[in-house]
Amino acid sequence: MIQAWRKAGPGGVAGPRTVKTSRTIRSIPKAVVFLLLMLPAIGMGQDTAGKDVLRVCADPSNMPFSNAEKEGFENKIAELFGKELGLPVEYTWLAEQFGFARNTLKRWLATENRYACDLIMSATAGFEMGKTTLPYYRSTYVLAYVKGRGLDAVKTPADLLALSEEERKNLVIGGFAGSPPIDWVVQNGLSQQLRGYRGESGNYTEDPGDMVSKDLVNGDVDVALIWGPIGGYYAQQIQNVDIEVVPFTSADGMQMDFPISMAVRYGNDQWLERVQTFIDENRGSIMSILQDYNVPLVPLRPEDKVVVEEEDDDD
Fold first, then answer.
1. Residue 235: phi, psi to the nearest 5?
2. Where are the alpha helices (DSSP H) in the chain?
3. What pTM did the predictor assign?
4. Are 243 and 233 in contact (CB under 8 A)?
5. CATH code at position 40
6. 42 has pLDDT over 80
7. Hey, is 34 helix, strand or coil?
């Protein structure tokens, strides 16, 4: 059974999408095509990122990252940044799924002569809609289960594999399609126990954390394989059961931890530097916020601290 969810975590199997040019556009002279492509830029004023308001692109229903009530850790980090800038924080809300950056960070509001928002708080490696800061934290996927239901001996993912054949056969394991833990499940012969979830949905009332807060708690799944910030947060929030969160590590045979950066539009190098300075000067406060939300943190790697020169590619 496949269910719909959003922002399940980084490292999925989906790759860059290729957009095919339609026959209609191919039949238009190149000079006309050029003018048509330039129309959105005509009349655009100077980019005002970080000038009068800190405008953040965010999901209105995606805890623990963000929500419309501004209760997520990305909201708290944005508030910290706004305080340092001496600017109010405003949001452009949209479900974080395919097209999110194009319809927020890159959306020009002609009537207001500005972009909809200027900063994405979480961007993974390979972000193509703008430039990213150096990673400000690294987290990992986790395995979560409710204590007292027969899995208390599982302290590492390898312990789950060490269960008897009869115990493994009776498990229901929840995981998001395309996420690294799904590959781990398949490689270790547990695909028959898998209950799959989709990573994208436009429904604001559904959260990826429902796999833990509802399905795991209610016993619909025995094990939840989920991005660490989600699993850690809901394990902390839920009071009626005791949820154990077991991080994946390199010992489990594949990459499960990923770096997270902030992102700005191409061409905004000065704004990018200002965001990076904020991260560098407030790293301790940012880590404290992440720890308050029980985010499983993995040390940044040496490559996470190296600036990679990027060319502007705003097409």
1. -65, -35
2. 23-26, 30-38, 73-85, 157-161, 165-169, 180-187, 210, 217-218, 228-237, 269-281, 283-292
3. 0.85
4. no
5. 3.40.190.10
6. no
7. helix
